[in-house]
Amino acid sequence: MDVIKTADIIYFSGTGGTAKVALALEKELIKNNITVNTYELKGEFKEEIQGDLLIILFPVYAANAPKSIDEWVKAAAFGKGKKSAVISVSGGGEMIFNTACRLSTIKSLAKNGYDVFYEEMFVMPTNCLMANSDELNAMLLNVLPQKAHKAVRQIITGNLHTKKPLIIDRLITKVMLIEKYASKLFGKHLTANDDCNGCSLCADNCPRNNIIMKNQKPVFNGSCVICLKCIYSCPQKAIMSKYIKSFIIKEGFNINAIEEKAKSIKNYQPAKEAAKGFLYKGVRKYLEIEGY
Ligand SMILES: Cc1cc2nc3c(=O)[nH]c(=O)nc-3n(C[C@H](O)[C@H](O)[C@H](O)COP(=O)(O)O)c2cc1C
Ligand code: SF4
Ligand code: SF4
What we know:
Radius of gyration: 19 Å
Oligomer: single chain
Strand content: 15-25%
Bound molecules: flavin mononucleotide, iron/sulfur cluster
Low-confidence stretches: none
Number of helices: 11
């Protein structure tokens, strides 16, 4: 592969985990004398990308990419064979159900003239259902620079690093497209209770422009992607969801607070203890491979 001199990272992030991966990759690329432009997909996005390498980065949503990523890759200017990497970030890691999550993005990019030669999964503290232990979150944040270093080394070599997902995973990915419809419903049925002080933080920060302020109260519309940002970052904890309440971590989710807490955790159990059980299989593997 020709030497990479410039790279564009296009990413979507709801609650900040993927943003931290973007930063870690950016740092590694810069260390390798590559000029990087990093763009977050938020609301209207019209930047033209011009680097030698395109990195698409997103959180896994129901075994797929978020709608903002689908929209961007479908509308992107013709790739003319531009080298591209697709990197997903999940709570569960590379395991059944998640392993086909990059497929539709890769397909759309290839259809649009991009040469996707690299795909990878990163794992970050999960932002839904059940919080990880503080120790496991600390391990995931601690291993991030090492993972970013490895990914950038692999990308620079230009060797093919893609894989064929299992048929079952392809089916799961298709079935889970239902989430795209469910998210519309979810978004329309979010409400703010009387604790809302009208600060408009939720409306200003929604990456889908799904919230408008009316009479000092947020009104939620139909372009939600269930990123959970508004719910977790409301200073008054005023935003409630009518549906799939159990999906939201009761204690809340704040990646910066998790990172702060992680700094005080210096000793870890082996990954096989800290990430026990079938549901953590992908997380365990992700850590064990790095010596945890
Ligand atoms: C709507 C939604 C669906 C999710 N689906 C999955 C999933 O299918 N598999 C998984 O491992 N993690 C899933 N997660 C967890 C996120 O992928 C994970 O926490 C990620 O780090 C969030 O990134 P962010 O902080 O940049 O938004 C989901 C999270 C949300 C909000
Ligand atoms: S962030 Fe919370 S308090 Fe502020 S306007 Fe939105 S719902 Fe109300
Ligand atoms: S309404 Fe809330 S959950 Fe939906 S996209 Fe906007 S910030 Fe995310």
